[in-house]
């Protein structure tokens, strides 16, 4: 079968790879659609991110949906022809963190399309994938393959919202409106946030943020002092979801965040220097958020029950053989929010 294999920055090839045999507890899925994630872009543009670097050829991709072709002999509840979204998260289930329910911190995690371990974990941008049945979640007929592939980034946002704690009646600020920040807007609204303000430096992401439910969208590039309007009485926002990974965006929101406000850092952009005196004086809680696990099932359930609409985030779907064009488009924030690949 064909797969998209990254060899070095800018060197992404369509190559023939073997289809593994289906074991008793596994499914073979015909991949129909896959979303290009920020980490895929980092591998394509830079060969990795942080200290993580490609050291051997690796199939990219971890946001996919498709239809079941083969069902392992010990699998129950699935049948050929059924459509599924596939969670890329494969924790061991045995280590101390899995036993504590913190599967996203598994000591033996195998996450599709990741160079964090050697040998690398091969990804899901391929025509067929064999996965554990526990990774597959059925899609309703009305959910498109493209929407199903986006269950993974929605899961990331749902986990971030869980890290924030109860949002019912809360006022929320989201800085950075790329796909993950946009998903945070959607997830925060579903969790009961009554006011959501989104900021970014590009026009297109802000337009999308308004379409998906933000009450206000601020272009920080054009209005660098716009958040000052929310600084009265020591700040107006209860929770900050920082999705840009930019230190200026994070620190720039501090005046608008009320005392004992909660900061959930979603974006990664390198190390930051923080004004500790402000964090102490306003008693902020700074919380990290990393991947997800149980939230994937929730994401698919929200899609199946029409409780979220991800269609406004879809900018384009291109054939996998046009991967270079698709990755270039995905990197252009002036034109694209979420770009997907078709493996039909």
Largest sheet: 7 strands, mixed
Instruction: Kindly provide the radius of gyration, computed on alpha-carbon positions and rounded to a whole number of angstroms.
Output: 20 Å
> Which word captures the global form?
globular
Please identify the top-level CATH class of the largest domain: Alpha Beta
- β-strand percent reads 25-35%
Could you name the ranges where pLDDT drops below 50 across 5 or more consecutive residues? Answer: none
Number of helices: 10
Give me the CATH architecture of the largest domain, please. Answer: Alpha-Beta Complex
Number of strands: 20
Structural class: alpha/beta
The CATH topology of the largest domain turns out to be Quinone Oxidoreductase, Chain A, domain 1
- Cα distance, first to last residue? 12 Å
Structure description:
The protein is α/β, with parallel strands linked by helices and 344 residues long. The protein has 2 domains: 2-150 and 310-342, Quinone Oxidoreductase, Chain A, domain 1; 156-288, Rossmann fold (3-Layer(aba) Sandwich). The protein has 10 helices and 20 strands. It has helices spanning 38-46, 96-99, 145-149, 151-164, 179-190, 203-211, 247-252, 276-281, 295-304, 323-330, and strands at residues 2-8, 11-16, 26-35, 48-49, 52-53, 58-59, 63-71, 83-86, 89-90, 110-111, 128-132, 136-138, 171-175, 195-200, 216-219, 237-242, 257-265, 285-288, 314-319, 338-342. The strands form 5 sheets. Strands 3, 7, 8, 11, 12, 19 and 20 form a 7-stranded mixed β-sheet that branches. Helix 8 (276-281) links the parallel strand 17 (257-265) and strand 18 (285-288). Helix 4 (151-164) packs across helix 5. It is globular. The termini are close together. The model has no long low-confidence stretch (mean pLDDT 96).
């Amino acid at each position: 079968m064909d797969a998209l294999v990254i060899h070095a920055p800018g060197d992404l090839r369509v190559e023939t790879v073997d289809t593994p045999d289906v074991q008793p507890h596994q499914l073979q899925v015909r991949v129909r659609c896959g979303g290009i994630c920020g980490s895929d872009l980092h591998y394509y543009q830079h060969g990795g991110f942080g200290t993580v670097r490609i050291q051997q050829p690796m199939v990219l991709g971890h946001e996919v949906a498709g239809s079941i072709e083969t069902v392992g002999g010990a699998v129950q509840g699935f049948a050929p022809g059924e459509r599924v979204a596939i969670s890329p998260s494969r924790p061991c289930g045995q280590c101390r963190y899995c036993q504590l329910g913190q599967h996203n911190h598994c000591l033996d995690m195998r996450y599709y399309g990741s160079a964090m371990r050697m040998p690398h974990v091969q990804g899901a941008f391929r025509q067929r994938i064999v996965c554990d049945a526990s990774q597959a979640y059925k899609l309703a007929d009305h959910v498109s393959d493209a929407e199903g592939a986006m269950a993974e980034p929605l899961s990331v946002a749902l986990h971030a919202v869980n890290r924030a704690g109860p949002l019912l009646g809360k006022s929320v600020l989201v800085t950075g409106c790329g796909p993950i920040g946009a998903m945070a807007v959607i997830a925060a609204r579903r969790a009961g946030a009554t006011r959501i303000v989104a900021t970014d430096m590009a026009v297109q992401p802000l337009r999308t943020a308004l379409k998906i439910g933000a009450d206000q969208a601020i272009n920080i590039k054009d209005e660098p002092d716009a958040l000052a309007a929310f600084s009265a009485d020591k700040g107006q926002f209860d929770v900050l979801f920082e999705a840009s990974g930019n230190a200026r965006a994070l620190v720039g929101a501090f005046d608008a965040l009320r005392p004992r406000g909660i900061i959930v850092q979603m974006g990664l952009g390198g190390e930051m220097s923080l004004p500790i005196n402000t964090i102490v004086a306003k008693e902020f809680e700074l919380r990290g958020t990393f991947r997800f696990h149980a939230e994937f099932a929730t994401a698919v359930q929200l899609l199946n029950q029409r409780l979220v609409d991800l269609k406004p985030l879809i900018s384009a779907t291109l054939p996998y053989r046009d991967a270079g064009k698709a990755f270039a488009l995905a990197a252009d924030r002036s034109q694209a929010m979420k770009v997907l690949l078709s493996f039909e």
